[in-house]
Amino acid sequence: MTFSTQRDFVFGQTFRQTFRAPVCRPDAGVRTLSAFAMSVAALMAASPGLAAVIEAPSRIDQVTVYPDAAQTSRIVEAEVPAGTHSIVLKGLPRQLDTDSLRIEGAGGLTIGSIEARIAPAPVEGGNVLNERLKKLLQDRASLQAQLQTLAARKAMIERYAQASPEKLGDKGAPMDAGRWSAAWDAVGEGLAKVAAETLTVQQGIQRVNQEIAALQSSNRPGGRQVAPTHDVTIEVEARAPVKARLIVSYRIHGAGWRPVYDVRLATAGGAKPALEIVRRAAISQRTGEDWKNVALTVSTVRSQRGIAAPVVLVERLSLYEPPPPVVRPRAAPAATMMRKESQDMALGAQGAAPGAPAPEPMQENEATLETGAYEAQFRVPGRVDIPADGSQRTLRLGTMTIEPKLTVRLSPAIDTTAYLEAAFTNSYEAPLLPGAVNIHRDGLFAGRGQLIFTAPGDEARLGFGADDAVKVTRVPVSRKESGPGLFGSNRSETKDFRTTVRNLHKFPVSIAMTDRMPVSEDSKIVIEALSTNTPPTEKIVSGRRGVMAWAFELAPGAQREIRLGWQVRWPADRRLVNETLPDGLPSDSASSNKN
Predict the structure, then answer these.
(1) Distance between CA 332 and CA 94 in Å, rounded?
(2) H or E element, residue 19
(3) Is 412 exposed, middle or buried (0-12, 13-18, 19+ CB in 10 A)?
(4) Do 133 and 38 share a structural domain?
(5) Do residues 580 and 479 both lie within one domain?
(6) What number is the average pLDDT over the span 575-581?
(7) Is residue 59 exposed (0-12), middle (13-18) or buried (19+ Cβ within 10 Å)?
(8) Which of 34-38, 281-285, 549-553 shows the lowest mean pLDDT across its residues?
């Protein structure tokens, strides 16, 4: 920088010497300008390293999208003379992470310091906001005057209502008792009208105050302000004049992608079912810069996630003090959302001429998968455009076809509907991230589901809707209650249920049934299983006490009965409380999970 300052000083001296040239002759000004130009040319030839500020254009060439951010690479091309200079990139997004700025270059350049500075945002619109604020203040003053008038009217009506009937007649005479009812009605109507008008005016004042506060809290009193941007200055040094090509990369917030899956199950009449999983990425961004004609890569790395295991702190237990009860209004039931699926394939089949060959299905471009030890990247073919308006762009990443294991799952204690479920192992080289799943069964849309995180080699399960060919019934066999005897102090209750499962398919099916019996959280409550119970295949399902499972095969047309019953005894002077936990865990475990 010292060398540059010295050159600036020499240039200043040359300019002053040239400016002092005599101007006594008519052509003196022309010769002075010619001398000045020759001096500058001589100076540039003698000092090729004169520092310059080069404002260079740039374009986005590559983008790597993470689930919670993006990595952008810009290409900068500029003519750089020999010496030390500054290349300035203007208008980069405000959201970029300045700590992630990295510069790469070629062509004999040496990169020095990098500076990122927030550029002041231009203000547009003149005094539009000031005029709007002035109008709002006038509106508020008018509304406040109306409020005062309504308050005076209300006070007058109240004074009339408080007056004695003896003084309300004509010329001070007592009011006829037959007119009292009309007077009361008039007072009531007047107060109701004033209250309604007062509420309307108060709401108007509240809206005006909110808009005034929004305008006054802004730092741009002169008009509409454009979002601020970053100006990046790169110090470079060139040994000789060169056409520089720099790659500027940075991480930026406001972008991301989420996985979306299309899962299609073909049962083929129960023999060798096939499961096709089409993986897609729904990408959207509001980074402040449009991605036009960029090479796009989708990465599974979550860049905003923690990088180290959390520190385990000491857990201390104390007695719980319940807060005072709060009465909340009952929420209105949620409206049922109806979905309509298009039938383009069916319509296309209906419109085909008899005997005409089936049209060749269109193909979708798929990304190329590149996996590492800790991440997976999908390189999208070609180049894409993704605007910065938050709109969603969906791209196909890959397809996986496997043979699943089909099971009919039952939970008759809650719902006697049989549901078809497909279990599969992730044979993909990349993990399946959590995301929404569009479920199709035998060419028909069956509903929407959710896929949990599934690493390569892990097993996942997806439901494919109701199986109406498997009939399930659950009926109580008996229910008995008994009070305390002459010498007893306990009460008892016995429940016994029978569940019948019947296979109406023409092929065998695998059944997985889950049911429950209550568990005791108090030593004074004794629960015993009945001797008539069908032994379960699994006594405790996923660590949930009292929840058990039965797994069996059903031949075509066959049926099976499952018996489950229990007896409960508890002190006669106590009331038994039946509680179903939302997470299905015992109360001690549920409470510990909240800490």
Answers:
(1) 42
(2) helix 2-19
(3) buried
(4) no
(5) yes
(6) 75
(7) exposed
(8) 34-38
* Structural tokens at position 483: 């009070």
What does the DSSP assignment read for 302-341?
-TTS-SSPPPPPPP------PPPP---PPPPPPPPPP---
Amino acid (one-letter) located at 136: L
Q: What is the pLDDT of residue 343?
A: 44
pLDDT (tens digit per residue) in 286-326: 998 999 999 999 998 877 666 777 777 777 766 667 777 77
Report how many domains make up the chain: 4
Is residue 462 in a domain? no
Would 184 be classed as within a structural domain? yes
Name every residue whose Cβ is closer than 8 Å to that of residue 4 and which is 6 or more positions away in sequence.
50, 51, 84
Taking CB atoms within 8 Å and a gap of at least 24, the contacts of 446-449 are: 448/339, 449/263
**Residue 184 sits in which domain range?**
128-224
Q: Verify that 80 and 152 share a domain, yes or no.
A: no
pLDDT score, position 498: 95
Q: Measured in whole angstroms, how far is the alpha carbon of residue 201 from the centre of its chain?
A: 38
What is the band of 360 on the pLDDT scale with cuts at 50, 70, 90? low
Structural domain contains residue 269: no
Ramachandran bin of 23, using left for φ above 0, alpha for ψ from -120 to 50, beta for the remaining angles: alpha
Which of the four pLDDT bands, split at 50, 70 and 90, describes residue 158?
confident
Assess if residue 488 is contained within a domain: yes
